[in-house]
Amino acid sequence: MSAHAWVDLLLAMLGGAIRVGTPFLFVSLGECLTEKSGRINLGLEGVLVFSAMAGFGAAWLTSSVWLGVLAAGLAGGLLALVHGLVCSLPQVNDIAVGIGIMLLGNGLAFYLGKPLMEPQAPQIPSLMLGDWSSSANVQAALHINALFPLGLALALLLRWGFTHTRWGLLVRMVGDSADAARALGTSVNGVRLAATVAGGFIAGLGGASLSLYYPGSWNEGLSSGQGLIAVALVIFARWNPLRCLAAALLFGAAGAVGPALQSVGYGAAYQLFNALPYALTLLILLLTCSPQRAARGAPMELGVTR
Length: 306
Description:
306 residues; mainly alpha; ABC transporter involved in vitamin B12 uptake, BtuC; 2 strands; 69% helix
């Protein structure tokens, strides 16, 4: 390719990284918060799909995209609340409950969302950050999802909150040693429930980004496994919200390789490039799940069998 084509490719990948990576960002931040409290939520795939359907339906019914975004967050928080309440019961396994929540969320979304496949809902606006340039490619690359700055702010807020606030200390303490937290009079189930619901709300914003921005419609194959990929992404990010931001952009760039190559006229092996996020997930799992060592930065309670 020529130098000009390479520049166009890099710009397309930049725009795609932000566009495709925004749902990854919200879901990974939600899972990071949940896992910091010592609970894993494999139901995020169901949360993502259900919240995408709820957000699209609310935006269509009210003609307000921001009410749709709020509805998506609330729907994600509602499913996470069910997950948190069930996991608070004695002798209940987080993983099994997460799988159940994933199936429940998918089933509800597919059933309730059937009337929403044809309508068009208002879309989340773009921030035109590239208007300073006369290049159409630069302008297209810098049309940013208006939710992305919110995700960036949430990553910074969570990172600061985990290290500088009493709330963050409680979440980390419960995630590292439930016995120590109980000894200090902390309600372990209460902290984990709050973290799980908040994490579900944040993940629900990722669902809104899917159905109300990119691809910007509702259909049953909308998420393509992004909720499950987010779990691997959090491991890759070492439970650090700022690293979740970088990892989300990396996964977004991987998902944008195929469309970016098409934009410069290279369409060979398009389906193979579309599989890059999944291949990257497998690679991360291989690199981080060695039996010889524990993942650095992992909350200790994640390794406790319940």
